[in-house]
Amino acid sequence: MALESSHHLAGSPLGKETPAQPISEYFGELTFGLGEMRERLPRDAFNELMKTLELGRKLSKETADAIAKAIMDWAVRKGATHFCHWFQPMTGLTAEKHDSFISIQHSNHSELKVIERFTGSMLIQGEPDASSFPSGGMRSTFEARGYTAWDPTSPLFVVESAAGARTLCIPTVFFGYHGQALDNKTPLLRSVQSLSQEACTFLKLLGDVDVKSVMATLGPEQEYFLIDREVAAKRPDLMMTGRTLIGAPTARGQKLEDHYFGSIPTRVITFMEDLERELYRLGIPVKTRHNEVAPSQFEMAPIFESMSIASDHNTLAMETMKRVAARHGFMCLLHEKPFAAINGSGKHCNWSMSNDKGENLLDPGHTPHQNLRFLAVAAVVIRAVHKHSALLASSIMSPGNDLRLGGNEAPPTIISIFLGSMLEKIFETIGRGEAARGSEREIINLGVGHIPDISKDYTDRNRTSPFAFTGNKFEFRAVGASANVSVPMSVLNAAVTDVLAEASTRLKALIAKTGSRDEAVITLVRELISESKNILFSGNNYSAEWREEAKRRNLPIIDSAADAFAIWNDEKATEFLVATKVLSREEIVSRYNVQLERYIKTMEIELDTTVALINEYVVPAVEKQLERTYNVQRDVKNDNLKSALGRRTATLETAFADLLQQCDALKRSVDKLADTHDEAAKVAHIVRECKPAAAKLRAVADRAEQEVADELWTLPKYREMLFHHSVK
């Protein structure tokens, strides 16, 4: 059946003309959300669904069936033949099992008739095999039962495969037979719910007596690389690990700083336009696109949404990016550090909260010193980040992010908060017990007559800060590009929820003591900031001096994913997750185990791939170059040339010997790893022996690359991947 829009889906022929059409006319046409339900459902069924969303009531069977029928009718008209429960297990990816809409109907004459059928029970609940997904010990192989359950807060959507098959995707949570969360989405939904409850209690104490709910909002900026697919296919390391394990940096790199915000290459803008059409049709509000700092690196950013939907949308966007990139002859790399010596990719998570009136609780307004609600909420967030900075840092750690954090655009692993000069002054004066003073918004005069005056924001930007206030939100800049945002956002929500509960108790006591709500709020703000001042830092987070200062301030310094495991295994550090009902103790232990296992497996893949690259590509290339140089040197009569060739031969012989020696050392370390059975001991061995051995081997291989003739070096080089193919 033809789609109702002239815009094509994934799989449409490249080069096909697409009529110009305003985005507003086709935005969300492949999604089935509350708007579609309002139009297509009987009024009673829709009202019951809204009560389910607002009050947490269970749907009746009749209403569930009515919703399912409306969904199926819509999906079939969109060309969908199958449906799936789309969920986010602890693999870091998504999962789905497709079932067709067809059902067999028997007639009186024993003839079979195929009909489309989709019931409320099919919509609400599925049963994928839970034993094959990571559970961290919560489920055994012989305990296979797991369930998916529809999340009605997130819109359903239709996607199309490269072959043209269309499937209805139902966003769901995934949990075990005894109710354990086996996914990343369930803890996020719990954290959003807990945050809303505690925030409402706190806001009512501040005077917002009619507040009914508070929504966590998120806008994740997504960085990525585009590499020519044919070139990437010749790099086993990119295919196996998503990053280059060897490769000499190019002379140019990002030295000229001419890529950032530069003119977007024609081939790339064609990809971006195609990608945006698909994302708009899926209801994903992409707003911004531009070149990033590194060559062949780009970024897209959405408009803020409620956190659970934003999380689903970011995960779906990453899948769509890879699919559309393949259609345009690209490979989309979401690894945090695909290439050495240039910027890696992050996912800056812009976080805030809004009440049910749509008011942003972190909007200072024009006079933030007079906005008690803003000051109180900001102080709570600052206290939350300080109190739980260790787990916040641990929540963003991964083998990929280990390689990115602390260099160029990426902030260091020490969590600190940048507020900006104006807010710092306001909190400082409150801390001294003085009346806070703020100036009217300043005007920047450029001294050029025909350029209009520009309003200055309340905060400058600090690109080195991992957690920065940026006007009306906090930007968690340390999250990695490939991360599922549900994990760090669940921890952040839980941290804020924990301090909101604490702040409500303290504020009640202060109000009772002072008899004045405003005075009590200012006192609470003063106390929270005083307790958390060590987390505030406005300087250069890259500097060695800051690292030493952070130690003096007793701030946690978690340098790697390996260091983060101890935090996840610390009951005291994770207790607030249990107290806020985001994760049970069993679920926390499971996540510790899953992360430990994934770290080991990821590193094993990288180490084995490195050894294979050296043996299969680098060693043969150096051998051929050495043989060629020997032959030339043997036939040369000129003494000066013979001497120069002798030096070159010696250089190659040294490189060859180092290569074999370092490869053998890494192989021995990897063999020891295979003989180690305790997972904690494996991690320690990887950090202590394997990673240093791999780094030494890479250094030798990269030097060898620069000594070998281009036609003998069969692996595509950095200059081919980063500069040539992306601008065709």
Provide a compact summary of the structure.
The chain is an alpha+beta fold and 728 residues long. Helix content is 48%, strand content 13%. α11 packs across α15, α11 (372-387) packs parallel to α16 (517-532) and α18 packs antiparallel against α20 (585-635).
Tell me what the structure shows.
- By secondary structure, this protein is of the alpha+beta class.
- A hairpin with a 5-residue loop joins strand 4 and strand 5.
- Strands 1, 2, 3, 6, 7, 8 and 9 form a seven-stranded mixed beta sheet that branches. Strands 14-10-16-21-20-17 form a six-stranded mixed beta sheet. A four-stranded antiparallel beta sheet has the order 12-13-11-15.
- It has 23 helices and 21 strands.
- Helix content is 48%, strand content 13%.
